[in-house]
Design a protein that fits this description.
Length: 486
């Protein structure tokens, strides 16, 4: 029987696990979270369920059906709180996956390792947030963090909040804030109307297949109107102000390439601000597996969702930012192929069509809402770019200029940008872009900030401890997280 290991239990991973089980593969599904559902279906913990969780999510029935099917299936082993911290390639097969199981701050965590026949990587994405003066003040949140607190804890990040950045994700963030009692004073989309028209309007008939997404966006627009939330184009939060925490923000008009326009600034009193400029794929395991990346830095896959690494498939946000429907379609195809199915199988026909539709949607999001080249104009020389190591924009520029270096590795080592506790997850891409435009002709050492051989936090004692054989690790209850017995 084919052994398929699925890493990530968001929409893509859940769909992959179900598809692989349908073809009779033995499936193990791992997620570092203590619940299934990933970012899209983040919900209250089982110990504190909502009376009507369903009305708070899009596609909740799909989630319930996927999770119930897998949880009641003896051929699918689900391990929650399972953080994959390394992936080692092997001469044959996709390699060995190393996992630490248990709460991040827990004791007695167990190490497991798996050497399956096929791996489906469905590790999703991080928030991308560009730096600006004051973004390191308490009270400045990424859109995803505000969303996670609202959906997973019913916590509001503030009473008077503005949402700023680029992309359709700003809308669910504002909706979730309102749902937990925040007053959203405005949503500021950096791109201007012509960019949105150029991205969204060509070949409108292609959008027909994505009508569900349109209905979802329509729902957010109605919510905005009902709560009188202004939605402004071509504007951005260009500075956050406060002493111990954010007290106000400056919003300014920006040009089509995101350069702030002097004289358009307006100060707004807030106690929180949520910023999102899209998403960065979580690529460390894919990089460790040896998967080739596209020019846009997503995992390159063929029509079976197979990467360039033998036996390694990829699905969801790590192959392109396209939302939940694309993640579900790609996950289904990846799981099916990983379990030995072929793309021409009748059972996949509708899914393959759906994938094409939603891939088009992803390209439109990038064209309409992508980050524009003028964003560094929002920085001053004392703006912190790497928050973990407190490296300023000025220091990065001075180092690049005084050393004349065009090596990302050398400049990172000289400044420590991207070497702190988040290992460049927050600032890595911004550091790369800032240095690439300083180092005329671009960076030349071929290094990027997605390579993290140890991809999760693990204590040295745990690293040194003996590995529990995966076969002897079983769950006492599918509804409990990571309660392993030996
Ligand atoms: C913070 C955040 C919030 C979002 N909220 C929304 C929203 O409200 N609405 C919306 O339309 N879209 C939202 N998105 C976009 C959303 O990610 C996608 O639409 C969809 O969830 C993608 O599905 P996925 O399966 O590819 O990834 P995800 O849903 O992100 O699932 C990936 C899973 O992989 C797990 N994982 C990652 N690395 C490891 C590892 N090393 N070991 C073990 N497990 C691992 C993660 O815990 C996660 O559960 C959000 C994205 C982010 C980053």
């Amino acid at each position: 029987m084919i052994q398929v290991l699925v890493i990530g239990a968001g929409p893509a991973g859940l769909a992959a696990a179900r598809a692989a089980r349908r073809l009779g593969a033995s499936v193990t599904l791992l997620d570092s979270s203590d619940q299934l559902g990933g970012q899209f279906w983040r919900h209250l913990p089982a110990a504190r369920p909502a009376a009507r969780e369903r009305i708070l999510h899009h596609g909740w029935d799909t989630f319930q059906s996927l999770s119930a099917t897998l949880e009641s299936d003896g051929g699918c082993r689900i391990i929650r709180s399972a953080n994959v911290f390394a992936l080692e390639t092997a001469a044959a097969g996709p390699g060995t996956v190393h996992v630490i199981v248990g709460a991040p701050d827990g004791v007695g965590r167990k190490r497991l390792s798996f050497s399956p026949d096929a791996i489906v990587l469905a590790t999703g994405a991080h928030d991308r947030t560009l730096p600006f003066p004051g973004w390191d003040l308490p009270g400045v949140f990424t859109g995803g963090a505000a969303q996670a607190l609202a959906k997973g804890e019913r916590l509001a990040v503030g009473r008077r909040v503005v949402v700023s950045g680029a992309g359709p994700f700003l809308l669910p963030v504002a909706a979730s804030l309102v749902a937990v009692g925040s007053r959203v004073l405005g949503v500021y989309e950096a791109n201007r109307l012509p960019a949105l028209v150029r991205g969204w309007l060509p070949r409108p008939w292609q959008l027909l297949g994505a009508w569900k997404k349109g209905a979802e966006l329509g729902g957010y627009a109605r919510g905005h109107l009902a709560h009188r939330i202004p939605y402004k184009l071509g504007r951005a939060v260009v500075a956050a102000h406060g002493t111990d925490r954010v007290e106000s923000v400056t919003v300014a008009e920006i040009t089509a390439d995101w350069t702030p326009i002097p004289g358009t600034e307006r100060r707004i009193a807030v106690d929180a601000v949520c910023i999102s400029h899209g998403f960065t794929p979580r690529l460390e395991l894919a990089v460790a597996a040896g998967c080739a990346l596209t020019l846009e830095r997503f995992v390159r896959v063929d029509d079976r969702q197979h990467s360039s690494a033998p036996g390694v498939y990829a699905a969801g946000e790590i192959t392109g930012i396209g939302g939940v429907d694309l993640a579900l379609a790609e996950g289904t195809i990846a799981g099916h192929a990983a379990a030995g199915g072929t793309i021409g199988d009748r059972a996949l026909r509708t899914t393959v069509r759906g994938r094409r539709t939603f891939q088009g949607f992803a390209a439109r999001i990038e064209a309409a809402h992508g980050i524009r080249a003028g964003w560094p104009e929002m920085l001053t020389s004392d703006t912190i770019v790497c928050r973990c190591e407190e490296v300023t924009y000025g220091h990065l520029c001075e180092t690049a200029e005084s050393t004349g270096s065009r090596s990302l590795r050398a400049i990172k080592l000289s400044t420590r940008a991207g070497l702190g506790i988040c290992q460049g997850r927050i600032c890595g891409r911004s550091v790369e872009e800032l240095l690439a435009c300083r180092a005329g002709g671009g960076l030349v050492d071929g290094v990027n900030t997605d390579r993290r051989p140890i991809s999760g936090t693990i204590r040295l004692g745990e690293l040194a401890a003996a590995v529990t054989p995966a076969d002897s690790y079983r769950l006492t209850s599918t509804s409990e997280s990571s309660k392993g017995t030996l």
